[in-house]
Write a structure and sequence with these properties.
Blueprint (H helix, E strand, L loop, with lengths): L5 H4 L6 H21 L16 E5 L4 H12 L3 E6 L2 H14 L8 E5 L5 H14 L5 E4 L19 H16 L1 H5 L4 E6 L25 H22 L6 E6 L14 H11 L6 H4 L1 H8 L2 H11 L6 E3 L15 H15 L5 H6 L19
Parallel strand pairs: 1-2, 1-4, 2-3, 4-5, 5-6, 6-7
Helix pairs in contact: 5-6, 6-8, 6-13, 8-13
This protein binds NADP nicotinamide-adenine-dinucleotide phosphate.
NADP nicotinamide-adenine-dinucleotide phosphate binds next to α3.
Length: about 375
């Protein structure tokens, strides 16, 4: 009898035991994150970062805002990649007025609208035309449309999948040539422990086959798991001499605008109930800032590569290495997610090699609607 293919092995859901373990991990994070992170200072002390250029997506609110502000205040050149440039300029003005430093903050603003893959391509083309080296890309922007019905992006992809995984994946790949020009260099994905309660079916990334019922929680958690799986393969495929660290981070459960779709009354009750254990955005920015600036991180990533560990580095909200979920460490499914992601964003299977060689790449954006179940 033929052994089951990897695509057969992709699960439609977790067993009840795995589901219980996954939720225990999420609940543990919520109730014990403060205790686990008690050794950390807030704000996280950062070294002078004058030689660092960082792109931070979604930096007009919540965790991304804190990451961008603290990097800039430590001297980094920060590029705020945002959907609302006016809001970004007004934030810069405020930070500039508040900063104790005599020098002005070194911040630029560029428009990036993740529900459009075309916007991602335009962003990377504009960035590339500047010819500047890039040290750190922080894929922070994300959505969790709690309680909302299933929606699709311009290209026809489920919106959590597009904003939280597909668009950041495309951005990461297209920025590899400028990352190669920087040193140190890394890609940081602001992920979530919620990936512990999910599975990804690479043949149904859009929840359209009817095999799995869509809910906003399923959409969000699946997109975060797909991000870890894609990052695992990117980490494995990048040649070690490229020296590009791929890191996923858990920010912790924080009070931000991520719950914007939840009715105000329920949101307020939730905040009151959980306020003793929730992080604020500054506390939740520490793991990404740590991953972006700690000198041990590139060594840790190189070590994982040597050890043949099946996942990229994953940093917890207490700034310690942690293991992603068992599902996230399945390299067979991760490879399928990698391939499907490239198909969905219009890149060929050899795009990584082409991009690393610095050659021009064609991104076919003839991404016709896929709601008929093609993906
Ligand atoms: N808060 C938590 O408890 C928690 C836990 C685990 C993981 N995370 C992750 O942390 C990251 C940051 O979330 P947050 O809590 O700081 O939430 P947030 O306050 O809602 O910030 C999200 C950021 O993403 C931007 N964004 C949303 N949709 C976008 C789009 N279509 N195109 C471009 N930018 C877009 C938002 O822009 P606007 O300012 O224009 O709205 C905002 O700046 C997300 O990836 C989230 O999944 C958060």
């Amino acid at each position: 009898m033929a052994s089951p293919s990897a695509s057969d092995q992709a699960k439609q859901g977790l067993s009840w035991m795995e589901w219980l373990q996954g939720w225990s991990r999420v609940i543990y994070e919520l109730f014990f994150q403060r205790i686990e992170a008690r050794h950390l200072k807030t704000p996280l002390p950062l070294p002078p970062l004058n030689d660092l250029t960082c792109i931070v997506t979604g930096s007009t609110s919540g965790i991304g805002l804190e990451i961008a502000r603290q990097l800039a205040e430590s001297g980094a050149n920060v590029v705020m990649a945002v959907r609302n440039p006016t809001a970004a300029h007004s934030l810069i003005q405020t930070w500039q007025n508040e900063t104790s430093s005599k020098d002005s903050l070194n911040i630029d603003v560029m428009e990036l609208n993740l529900p459009s893959l075309e916007s991602v391509v335009r962003f990377s083309e504009t960035w590339d035309s500047l010819g500047k080296p890039l040290n750190v890309l922080i894929n922070n922007a994300g959505i969790f449309s709690m309680g909302e019905p299933q929606k699709f992006s311009n290209e026809g992809y489920e919106t959590h999948m597009q904003v939280n995984h597909l668009a950041p994946a495309l951005l990461s790949l297209l920025l590899l040539p400028s990352l190669k020009r920087g040193a140190p260099r890394g890609i940081i994905n602001v992920n979530s422990v919620i990936h512990f309660v999910s599975t990804v079916d690479p043949n149904d990334m859009n929840f359209v086959s009817g095999k799995r019922e869509f809910s906003s929680l399923a959409g969000y958690s699946t997109s975060k798991l797909a991000q870890v799986m894609f990052s695992n393969v990117l980490h494995k495929r990048l040649p070690s001499e490229s020296d590009i660290s791929i890191i996923c981070v858990e920010p912790g459960c924080a009070r931000t605008k991520i719950e914007r779709d939840v009715p105000k009354f329920i949101r307020e009750v939730g905040y009151r109930l959980f306020s003793p254990v929730l992080f604020n955005a500054e506390e939740a920015s520490r793991s990404a800032l740590f991953a972006a600036t700690d000198p041990e991180i590139p060594k840790y990533c190189a070590q994982l590569r040597c050890d043949e560990w099946p996942a990229c580095a994953y940093i917890s909200s207490s700034c310690c290495p942690m293991n992603p979920s068992n599902e996230a460490r399945r390299l067979d499914v991760s490879s399928l997610v990698w391939q499907k992601t490239l198909d969905m964003v219009g890149l060929s299977g050899d795009c990584l090699e082409i991009l690393l060689e610095g050659k021009e790449i064609q991104c076919s954006l003839e991404l016709t609607l896929n709601r008929n179940g093609l993906y």
